Amino acid sequence: MSEHMIAEKASSSSQEHFLDGPELPTGITRFWLIRHALVEENARMCMYGSMDVPLCPDSLIAQRPMYRALAARLPQDAQWFISPLSRTRRTAQAIEEAGYGARPLTVEPDLIEQNLGAWQGLEYHALPAHLTLPPHPFWPVAASDCPPGGESVIEVCSRVGRLLDRLARTHAGRNIVAVAHGGVIRAALAHALRIHAETALHFSVQNLSLTILERLDTGWRVVTVNELPGI
Questions:
Q1: Mean pLDDT score of the chain
Q2: Is the pLDDT reported for residue 51 higher than 90?
Q3: Domain with 38 in it: what CATH number?
Q4: Which listed site, 7, 87, 153, 212, has its alpha carbon 20 to 30 Å from 20?
Q5: Per its UniProt record, what Pfam families does this chain match (predicted)?
Q6: What is the pLDDT of residue 11?
Q7: Cα R_g (the chain), whole angstroms
Q8: Residue 74 lies in a domain
Q9: What is the residue range of 93's domain?
Q10: For residue 118, which phi and psi values (nearest 5 degrees)?
Q11: How many helices, marked H, and strands, marked E, lie in the chain?
């Protein structure tokens, strides 16, 4: 084979992975990561981490257009996963009820939010007295700070990275919807982009936002981050 033909073949192969339009190609291992809906007001006053707190009932009503937009945006052939916390299950059910239709929801323990250990339940104003490192500008604690009896953001990134690799192998070529948590989605971005946990905390991941990652033969690709449905 001539050098010209080799170069042409390589160029053609790489172009197969380009995203030049709104339609996402089929047959690719694709993760649709959704942060759960807003939790109730009292929970938002403290470090709730991996505590099981309920969603805000008012927001469930007010944000119905966002649930309908997610129901229309998500692929129908997806395998669904949720964390062990009820706020992810209720968010998934609200999407189903908004027009997506009922689907089996598989509980995946490694999708759970950062365990803040002894710091869970602390009001935010009381947290600084317990920190061993200055907090991150966009997260209550530094990525390497580990709460007593809990886990650091670095450990969350390691946990979530192993999970993504495992699901990508198990569900190769499939769509995977995971309703999870802000910290988990930032950890997924850290894994996909091969960046430090401290850097990943600079991403904004809002409630009900959608982040799409793809696992290709050539590596991970980030399609969208913090996409707000219907906006």
A1: 93
A2: yes
A3: 3.40.50.1240
A4: 7
A5: His_Phos_1
A6: 41
A7: 19
A8: yes
A9: 26-227
A10: -65, -15
A11: 7, 6
